[in-house]
Amino acid sequence: MNKAEQNKKLASFKTKTIPTWCPGCFNFQILAGTEMFLKEQAQKEPKKEWAMVSGIGCHGKMFDYLNLPGLNALHGRSIPVAVGMKVAKPELNLLVYCGDGDAYAEGIEHLIHAARYNSNFKLLVHNNQVFALTIAEPSPVSEIGYKDKTNPRGVKLAPLNPIRLMLASGASFVARVFADVNQIKQILGEANKHKGFAFIEVLQPCVIFHPDASYKSRTYNLQEKGHDKTNLSLAMEKAEEFDYTNPSNKIPLGIFYQKEKPIFEDII
Amino acid sequence: MKITIIFGGKAGQGPNLLSEIVSQGLLIAGYYVFYSREYQSLIRGGHNYNILTFSDKPVSSNESKIDLLICLDDNTKKIHKSQLKKQGLVIEGEKGNLFYAGSVFKILGLKLEILEQTLKKMNKYDDFIDEAKAGYNFEKRKLIDLKPLKNNSLDFMNGSQAIAEASLSSGLELYYAYPMTPATPLMMELGQMQLDKKSEHKVIELESEIAVINAALGSSMVGKIAMVGTSGGGFDLMTEALSLSGMAEIPLVIYLSSRPGPSTGLATYTGQGDLNLALYSGHGEFSRIVVAPGDIEETFEKTNECFALSEKFGIPCILLGDKHLGESKFITLKNPSIKKVFKKKNWPAKFNSYEHNSEGIAIEDIETINKNFEARIKKHKDIALEVSKLETYRVYGNKDSKNIILFWGSTKGAIIDAFSESGIDAKLIQLLYIEPFPEKIKEELKGAKKIIVIENNATSPLSNLLSEKTQNIIEDKNKILKYDGRPFFSDLLAQEIKRRIK
């Protein structure tokens, strides 16, 4: 590959489409982090074939901005599409994007089974704790008391804890990051090294409907604190630290758990 | 000559194996055989039975009256005794299905060598022969003295086997399904065929029908030939992704094996109540193909055409069947013609569930929206043109008759058999393609004095479709409908037809 070709490859992860996300939206961070990761990968292993699947919601627009082949799937259904793509073409390097609506509401069955199958794709859940594109309805991870026009009396149910769910479902790679360009790039690198399904929850404030400014300052990195990511019980304990509601909770980031197991498309 | 036998017993007593042994013997002796299965939604106990009809002429249905009743339990006699003809015989006792297999051979006058030959052909000689021979020697009565004939059926199989073989011949690589009767026999056929080294296809069970169809679309998108199969309830779950197939132009073949009744309905029975589901399911406006074969040869050819057309146009093709087609065993008299299916190479590209431009990126501008809708309308016409080159319907009987009988799907066997016995003057039209609707049907109906529609359902969706497409109103009294979960019997159907066409 000559220099000109290489430059073309680097630029080629962007489409010409101008993003329509709100100014300051944290999706820009996730997009930029992905692009940086892909550029680095393209330099290291230019022959690797990358693809993507996205769901429906603000996150789904990633599909229009990232120049990767794939499908902008139905709401909640990116995961089974990804399973089918990997079964058909195991050599494909596949990034799958979901919102908290896709992954934790409409398509939660697929999330649980994805952990069980351990199909070798990397899933990023853009968790902004709200249905943003339909104008602020609560999602399964909205905190108690969260209000919007459709529920002025506030949410009464405690939010789901997706980290705990994924650990219990047998996911072989469970991580959480904040929607920050460097964190995205870094965790995609780690997930890419992992052979199997990688679950990455991206905590992402919604600047319009769920703007929790304290999130970033409350986070700390598990790896920096010497967390043993091979220990499932410890991972469960760490999953309990942040309940998506209490504003005084510390928020653990990084890899909660990692353990290789057989890959779906290799064994079927 | 036509003989009908019922083999009945509890689930687990093996009435199905018994009727298979007898069928194979009759085929070796040169007779034409057909059998249907009635079984309940349970694994052990209950009452299961097979109805077998054979003749020296081709036969593809059962009669309501029986010549021979084989009872593997007491219940069978209680339930079916009233169906026995005057000279009919009953085989009963404490023995098992293999013993009575021997008895049936004897009672039909088939030579012991044919019994031996049959078990050898089934690779069951060593396991079964002693018991079968004991039954053969024990039985002293004779219902008929069958002389070997020279007739040759090419094959004897059910619709599920035909779909499985035709799919693999069409290049099927991945079959996704969630178990649901009566579509599961296809999953079993394809599952077993994975053990056959000749094929490298995979059968994959996922967590739900929703996962199944979305995964199949994912596989199809990156270049594999994929298929899904289900019954009505599972199909309902798939319909959002059916619409996705239409929007993103991803090819997919869907086997919809109907059950009777709404909701869970009747899991293990037959019915044609899902015609409108196949035609109109899925939101938005997009093209699809719906085909409904009525026998084994048609099942081969139409399955093959589903794969070819879905690939060519990037559309969902629905192969509409039911338990009667999928689980009854039919003879074949003609080799089906299977054409090579060309997989279109679409990958890598961007596919989109949202309205999108030619690069696969979401759009909302008026110009592109209009362009896309117009492209879909044109595609609909292109599909109709392509399909019009195929055999979209069949005509039987007196082609000039003013009496017309219309039908589709698995009712074919009983209708053809009833018609040939009734001696009435009529033209029979069997629809093979329901969507796109064959335009020539309108011409075929010109000048008709009486139009009769026969369907295995309660509201006759075909009659409504005919009104819409051909402006012929089918009077209620000319609809012959059956909705008890069981297929038509040819003798009763002949009476129904004769009541309407004198």
Explain this structure:
With 268 residues, chain A is of the alpha/beta class. Chain A has a single domain (24-267), classed as Thiamin diphosphate (ThDP)-binding fold, Pyr/PP domains (Rossmann fold). In chain A, 36% of the residues lie in helices and 18% in strands. Chain A is built from 11 helices and 10 strands. In chain A, the strands form 2 sheets. Chain A has an 8-stranded mixed beta sheet with strand order 2-1-3-4-8-7-10-9, sandwiched between helices. Chain A has a two-stranded antiparallel sheet with strand order 5-6. The longest helix of chain A has 18 residues, at 27-44. Chain A is globular and about 60 Å long. The model of chain A has no long low-confidence stretch (mean pLDDT 95). With 502 residues, chain B is α/β, with parallel strands linked by helices. Chain B has 3 domains: 2-153, Pyruvate-ferredoxin Oxidoreductase, domain 3 (3-Layer(aba) Sandwich), CATH 3.40.920; 157-388, Rossmann fold (3-Layer(aba) Sandwich), CATH 3.40.50.970; 393-500, Rossmann fold (3-Layer(aba) Sandwich). Helix content of chain B is 39%, strand content 22%. Chain B has helices at 15-28, 74-80, 97-107, 112-121, 125-138, 159-169, 184-193, 209-221, 232-248, 275-280, 296-313, 323-327, 366-388, 412-422, 440-444, 461-470, 490-500, and strands spanning 2-11, 32-38, 45-55, 66-71, 84-91, 155-158, 174-177, 202-205, 226-230, 252-258, 289-291, 316-322, 329-332, 350-352, 393-397, 403-408, 427-431, 433-435, 450-455, 479-481. Chain B has a 7-stranded mixed beta sheet, with helices on both faces. In chain B, strands 2-3-1-4-5 form a 5-stranded mixed beta sheet, sandwiched between helices. A 5-stranded mixed beta sheet of chain B has the order 15-17-16-19-20, covered by helices on one side. In chain B, helix 3 (97-107) packs across helix 5, helix 4 (112-121) runs antiparallel to helix 5 and helix 14 (412-422) crosses helix 17 (490-500). Chain B is globular. Classes of the chains: A alpha/beta (268), B alpha/beta (502). The interface between A and B is large, with 33 and 40 residues. Strand 2 (70-72) of chain A pairs parallel with strand 14 (350-352) of chain B.
